Structure formats: structure tokens, C-alpha cells
């Protein structure tokens, strides 16, 4: 099997699984309990939070655990909007956001908020000057993802941070789910970023765990009300085993960042160079200012899901551009926002690499691609 769908989910590290099992079986007390088992759980919860914060260069008081990226995005978009509603009800998100952000923004519209979508250029990058034109006196939130999940474009977070430097009343949220342990932290978690969301299973942790960075002093409506966990911002019993496994996975991934970048970028360059030789292949991802591990392309006249299943017959696993919306059969929203015609956008498929992949797998992928390309000649 060759797995090339790491942007959808990654295989958990054995060490992370071992941590989960050990904690779940040995430290199963509720961190909110007053007895010694609760205190033991609290110490591990605090240590995990401190480790994650340290890896990001932040304070442990700024890390709040969630069930994953979708929950985190929903919480920030809705929680900040309602927290600051008395100051303004205008929100800006980019046109290429993950559905967790985009759909949350559209939900806000139904609640009486105004939402603008910041446009992107034909390569998939937010146009900072046009974003600036959208900012109004009643704008309370700007949300732009760090790395686009569909084509891998690395968004100009530093430039947007500079734009918002003299606008302290505007909260800045970054969906960093695809960025953490893939590119340098300084490229997406600047001092101007107020909120950022993360998901454990994108960096070899477990599904059902994530965390939100909330800059000290920034306010947000609580996600859940109840027992007061997570500083009264998300009241529910913490998934201690999952959180400890997340801390372990993040440490290993951050230590592996340089290797990951070097290996995946080389493999991506080889595939890109070879695919470019085929006349009926459209390449949607680039190299400069793109993530090292994401490459999106399409075979003209062949729908993406057809190509995905064709590769699966050879035990090679890729995806259409967004795992969260692929089963809906919709064309890639990012490509449409870039101005790509619908018939081309519907052909898009994505490969997303990991350091565990190797050159022999890339050779097998390219050999299989040639077979599939020839088989689709009549369709093309």
C-alpha cells in the first residue's frame, strides 16, 4: 500500500498510540476530582498543555483543548463574533477557507452578521490589498488559513499581520490545521495572531483531539457551559489520554520538521516535473510559497473521483481536494475561487506526502499514473 493522503489524516505514531494506551489504562482519574487520582490526572494534563505551548513558543495559559479542527474553527468564528457583537457585526474570511470556517461564517449571516469573503488571485493566494479594502470600522474578525488544504498555497499571514498591526480592535484568526509541523511556526503564528486552531490527527496524533491558541487577554464566548474546565471556556471532562498522545505526537513531529520538509519537497518536485510532461494534465499547485507536501493536479476530461478510484485499484491512496467535502461530489471550492473553470476544477485530485513516503513509492505512483492516463485516452 502507498498512502498519499496525509492532508486528510496521518497514521498515528506508535509512540503516540503507546502513550494513549498507557494513560487510558493507568491514569484514568478525572482531572476535576479532588482525590489523588484526580491530582495525578491534573498533573499530566498540565504537563501536556505546557509541552504543547512550549513547542509553539506560547504560554500554557493560552492553549485550550478541543475535539479537533472543525470544533476549534466553529468556536473561534462564532465565539469571537458574538463576544464582540456590541462593537460590530462584520466578519471577513478568505474565499478559500475550509468548510469549518466558511460554513460557520455563513451561519453567522443567518444570525444577522455581515460577512465578506476576501478574494484570492489565480494561484490561490489571498490578495492582501483587496482584503484591506474590505475592512470597516465595525469589522471585528479576520480569518485566513495558514496553508490551503486543497492546493497547498501558503497564505501571506505575515503580510496580513502587518496590515492588522494598527487595527487592534480586529481579531485575527488563523486555521493552522494544515501548517503545524509542516512549515516553520513563525510563518503562521505571528505576534499579531490572536487565535489559531490545530488538529492532532494531522501530525500523527489521534482523531478526536485538537487545541486552540487564544492569545492572553483576548476574549471569546465559551464553547460549552458546565463544570468550568479549560478555564471555563470549554466545560467538559478532558480527553486526557488523547491530549497526552497529542503532546507526544507534536513533539516528535516538530523534531522531524526539517526532515519532513526536505524529503517531501524533493518527492513533490519529481512528481511535478514528470506530470508536467503530459499534455492533458493540469497542475494546480506550485513550488514557491506552496507547502512542500501537497500537490494537486487533474487529467482533463476525467473527474477527480474516477482518478482516485483508479489509483485505489493499484493500492495507491490519494484524494479529491478536500476529504471533508469529497463525498459530496462538489468541485474544489479553492479552484473555483481562483477562477478555474468548473469542468477543470472537477478533475482535481490531491496527493499529500509524508516523511514516511520514499522515492520508490514515487516511481510506482508515476508508473501507475502513466497506465491510468493511457486508459483514459478515450475520455480525454
TrEMBL record:
Enzyme Commission number: 2.8.1.7
* Presence of keyword Metal-binding: yes
Q: Which UniProt keywords apply?
A: Iron, Iron-sulfur, Metal-binding, Pyridoxal phosphate, Transferase
InterPro entries documented for this protein: Aminotrans_V_dom, Aminotrans_V_PyrdxlP_BS, Cysteine_dSase, PyrdxlP-dep_Trfase, PyrdxlP-dep_Trfase_major, PyrdxlP-dep_Trfase_small
Q: What cofactor does its activity depend on?
A: pyridoxal 5'-phosphate
A Pfam family that the UniProt record links to this protein: Aminotran_5
What region holds the Aminotransferase class V domain?
A: 2-365
A single GO molecular function, which one?
Answer: cysteine desulfurase activity
PANTHER family, A to Z: CYSTEINE DESULFURASE ISCS 2-RELATED, CYSTEINE DESULFURYLASE FAMILY MEMBER
Task: State the family it belongs to.
Answer: Belongs to the class-V pyridoxal-phosphate-dependent aminotransferase family. NifS/IscS subfamily.
**This protein's name:** Cysteine desulfurase
Source organism per UniProt: Streptococcus milleri
Amino acid at each position: 500500500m502507498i498512502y498519499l493522503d496525509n492532508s486528510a489524516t496521518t497514521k498515528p505514531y506508535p509512540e503516540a498510540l503507546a502513550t494513549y494506551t498507557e494513560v487510558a489504562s493507568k491514569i484514568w482519574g478525572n482531572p476535576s476530582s479532588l482525590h489523588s487520582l484526580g491530582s495525578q490526572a491534573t498533573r499530566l494534563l498540565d504537563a501536556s498543555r505546557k509541552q504543547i505551548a512550549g513547542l509553539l513558543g506560547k504560554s500554557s495559559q493560552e492553549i485550550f483543548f478541543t475535539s479537533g479542527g472543525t470544533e476549534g474553527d466553529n468556536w473561534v468564528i462564532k465565539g469571537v463574533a458574538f463576544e464582540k457583537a456590541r462593537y460590530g457585526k462584520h466578519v471577513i474570511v478568505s474565499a478559500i477557507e475550509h468548510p469549518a470556517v466558511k460554513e460557520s461564517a455563513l451561519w453567522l449571516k443567518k444570525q444577522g452578521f455581515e460577512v465578506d469573503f476576501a478574494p484570492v488571485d489565480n494561484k490561490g493566494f489571498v490578495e492582501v490589498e483587496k482584503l484591506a479594502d474590505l475592512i470597516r470600522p465595525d469589522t471585528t474578525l479576520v480569518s485566513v488559513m495558514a496553508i490551503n488544504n486543497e492546493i497547498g498555497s501558503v497564505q501571506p499571514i505575515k503580510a496580513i499581520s502587518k496590515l492588522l498591526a494598527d487595527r487592534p480592535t480586529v481579531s485575527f484568526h488563523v486555521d493552522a490545521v494544515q501548517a503545524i509541523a509542516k512549515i516553520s511556526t513563525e510563518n503562521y503564528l505571528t505576534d499579531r495572531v490572536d487565535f489559531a486552531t490545530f488538529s492532532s490527527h494531522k501530525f500523527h496524533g489521534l482523531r478526536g483531539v485538537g487545541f486552540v491558541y487564544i492569545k492572553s487577554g483576548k476574549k471569546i464566548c465559551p464553547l460549552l457551559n458546565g463544570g468550568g474546565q479549560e478555564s471555563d471556556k470549554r466545560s467538559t471532562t478532558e480527553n486526557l489520554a488523547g491530549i497526552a498522545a497529542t503532546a507526544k505526537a507534536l513533539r516528535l513531529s516538530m523534531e522531524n520538521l526539517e526532515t519532513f520538509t526536505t524529503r517531501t519537497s524533493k518527492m513533490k518536485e519529481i512528481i511535478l516535473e514528470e506530470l508536467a510532461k503530459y499534455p492533458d494534465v493540469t497542475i494546480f499547485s506550485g513550488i514557491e510559497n506552496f507547502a512542500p507536501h501537497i500537490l494537486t493536479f487533474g487529467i482533463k476530461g476525467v473527474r477527480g473521483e474516477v482518478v482516485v478510484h483508479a489509483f485505489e485499484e493499484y493500492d495507491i491512496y490519494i484524494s479529491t481536494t478536500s476529504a471533508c467535502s469529497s463525498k459530496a461530489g462538489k468541485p474544489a471550492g479553492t479552484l473555483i475561487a481562483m477562477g478555474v473553470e468548473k469542468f477543470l476544477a472537477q478533475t482535481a485530485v490531491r496527493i499529500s506526502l509524508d516523511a514516511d513516503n520514499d522515492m520508490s513509492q514515487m516511481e510506482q505512483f508515476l508508473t501507475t499514473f502513466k497506465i491510468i492516463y493511457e486508459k483514459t485516452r478515450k475520455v480525454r
